[in-house]
Amino acid sequence: MTALTTEDHLALCNALADAGNPADVYRAVERVLSQRLGFGLFTMLVRTPDGEQVRRVHTTDAQAYPLDGCKRMGPTPWGDLVLEHRQCYLARDAEGIRWAFPDHALIASLGLASAINVPVVAMGRVLGTINLLGAAGRYLDADIAVVRSVAPYLAAPFLREVDGGIQGASAR
After folding, report:
1. pLDDT tops 50 at residue 171
2. How far is CA 151 from the centre of its chain?
3. Distance of alpha carbon 75 from its chain centroid, rounded?
């Protein structure tokens, strides 16, 4: 496991304190997770206030996974685990990807076959998820703790995305 350093935490604290919009914090989280764990694809999703839909608010591959409107989640085993029961999910291989994601063929076409999904939870409310995808076998159980350690830095930006905050939705 590659734990976050004090410098990583300070960078995230500074990004959160100085952010002009949520995207500034998202880029800081992306940098830290890229350095500590690496990924082939990194996205973040927020839930709509009714919890019925999710919206992609950050992506490292806008062609395959663009920032766009909301999509209905529907009941899925992954959604039940991550969004309803606030559990992290680790897909170690293509079978784990197929179990979790209806778009598993697109994921495979990008050469990705493992994933970590961590819910961002604040005051008991699941606001969204952090999603890292990599090659088969890329992630270990211990890596989940690294991703979980950045989740609190996303609570305020996700709340702003979900609830509109004082100044409305973020610029991208």
Report:
1. no
2. 9
3. 19
State the DSSP H helix or E strand holding residue 79, giving kind and residue range, or none if neither: helix 77-79
Question: Would 168 be classed as within a structural domain?
Answer: no
Q: What percent of the chain has pLDDT over 90?
A: 81
Residue 172 forms part of a structural domain? no
More confident residue, 50 or 104: 104
Rounded-to-integer distance, Cα 12 and Cα 35, Å: 13
- Number of domains composing the chain: 1
73: tokens are 């989640």
pLDDT, mean over the chain: 91
The Cα 137–Cα 7 span in angstroms is 28
159 assigned to some structural domain:
yes
Cα separation, 99 vs 77, in Å, equals: 8
For 137, the domain range is: 6-163
Give the global pTM.
Answer: 0.91
